[in-house]
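Q: Could you predict the 3D structure of uroporphyrinogen-III C-methyltransferase?
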Amino acid sequence: MGKVYLIGAGPGDVGLITVKGLDCVKTADVVVYDYLASPRLLAYAREDAEIIYVGKKGGDHTLSQDGINALLVEKAKAGKTVARLKGGDPFIFGRGGEEAEVLKEQGQAFEIVPGVTSAIAAPAYAGIPLTHRKHTATVAFVTGHEDPTKDESNIDWAKISTGIGTIVFLMGIKNLPMITKRLMDNGRAPQTPVALVRWGTTPGQETVTGTLETIVDIAQKAKIKPPAVIVVGEVVDLRPVLNWFETKPLFGQKILVTRSRKQASALVEKLADLGADCVETPTIELVPPKDPKPLEDAVDNIAAYDWVVLTSVNGVDYFFDCLFSKGKDARALANAKVAAIGPATSAKLREYGLVTDIVPKTYRAESVVEAFLQEDMKDKKVLLPRAAQARPILPVELKKMGALVDEVPAYETVQASQDQAQVLWERLESGEITMTTFTSSSTVSNFVALFDKEKLLKVMEGVKTASIGPITSDTARDLGLKVDMEAEAYTIDGLVQAILDGVGK
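A: Sure. Here are the predicted structure tokens for uroporphyrinogen-III C-methyltransferase:
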């Protein structure tokens, strides 16, 4: 028998899903998700999981509610474990109760995994506490969009208008004029503070405030559209003091991350934590080398090397993948010394049980060469597993010192799929993207190769560019791009700091 987990995916910030909810996503055979469930959660699904979108946006329904119910039953009857991701909490205006009823009727096992509802999360991210000892001890959650097929409203406007301190309306932006009128007609003071929080908890969050008598005009001028929550009550006046999310240093910045999807997460997490809205569009992908034999031969003969030099985190992973495939581990390097190009590469080597003998002062090939000047390299055998078509300076200079260098490709960088190129171009052309990040020369060259170069350079005049270091910057300039920010330390942390410094100017 299959099983369906009705999961509250949270209000938008991917970090607000519960531990249990995320565990369900990681183990599910099928993931069925809504319009308001963060697509970033799908990255946690198994690679072989079936992913099905059933979002409902305004009048555009990918699948009717009856169709969704039937789909859940069908997958459960097929013996599948289903993660049904619903925005916010499944039992707060999420129709989770209806889906659970159908599963029960059909004899299918299910569990409810509560989630953080936007009714509390969006106001919290806007700096609005729904209850406060000095203001109110009562709060109500009300749908702003009742079922239109009902004969009459089951909202008792007379009682909630004056009987509740804070009222939160969900899905009510289209009905905002009616909501404010009903509240005032039933005794709520026209001067009562009101806040509208759109896309709460996400980097695209937008908040406007007013009063019951002014908020409709304010919302129209600000062009506030769904999804948004409406908060009515004196607690809205606390926003100027408690607003914490929209004051983050990178809030309002929409930053393009061109790094490979496998590597992008660290940069995206750091930028998002500072308030940025990250657009992940990898321009490169990492793949094994076309001819794996040189690396395999080197690993077979690993005991003959005096030095193994790793120049990137990727090189470390691909090298050890080959080592493990040969039935070996770090002990195979017992006779060799190890050099790393920088602290990130050195830290990755530690994960495999190796402490590096050389870590240069700066994170580029020239610094590695300088570090080796302190070593006697005459007739020393050096293995250099790294990206195909990497800069030649390191093997050339080591050979000048008398070393016997075997440079073998551990992986290759190739241009990523162009499937997203058109969507990305539209976002660049519209001015939506405010900044682009480049973490290697290959990310730059492949980014430029995606588009008509002349048109791209014109569009990029209005986009800030952040580079991880001078080599990447040189590539960007050679291709006609300006570089606004360059990391002093050629690491992800260094890049993030350069962006913070650049935005602060």
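Q: Anything worth pointing out?
A: The longest strand covers residues 404-415.
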